[in-house]
Known about the structure:
Blueprint: H1 2-6, H2 12-26, H3 38-51, H4 56-69, H5 72-75, E1 84-93, H6 101-114, E2 117-121, E3 124-129, H7 131-147, E4 152-161, H8 169-192
Antiparallel strand pairs: 1-3, 1-4, 2-3
Helix pairs in contact: 2-3, 6-7
Amino acid sequence: MVNRLFSFSNDHQFLWQKRNCLLNLFNLSYPPTIVCTARCTALLISRIIDRIKGSPTLIESTMADLAENVTFRQCAHLATPDHVTADFCLIPMGTPTASVSQHIANIQKLLAASGIKYSMHSAGTTLEGSWEEVTKVIGQAHTLLHNQGVVRIQTDIRIGSRTDKVQSMEDKVSAVEKILQADSDAVKPAAEE
Length: 193
């Protein structure tokens, strides 16, 4: 188990981060070492196992959690989704009036110029594109309003992605409308009788 978790790596910085993660996770004290090696990390694991002995389920689930928590190094190489749908509501704060429609109009002009697919609705805007495109244009909307004198902005963002198929914002709405239509069609014959 220890071999699988740590592969006896000699990357000292990586092992030091794992060691500190384990110490915090189990609230343990351990003598500080200048160089953290795979051996000292393996000893720490055995000390943790000794501490929770008598509960094999706890050991297995704890080791599984550790396996998930210590893979953060691999995350740097993960790609972001190619297609996402994002809904954002940007709220300029501290403006002289309660109306923010001019600010929202400026953001809509930015979105049109960006070329990203978008749809404004009463409580925000839905965007469709890659993760990078979507988050970039939301950041640009912040910068645009800051450059126009808005000192503080609060934004709520919801981002969805799928791996089984590419689904547009229209597809999502259409799927619900079909269900509603089918329900409506099922009720009509009963009402006509």
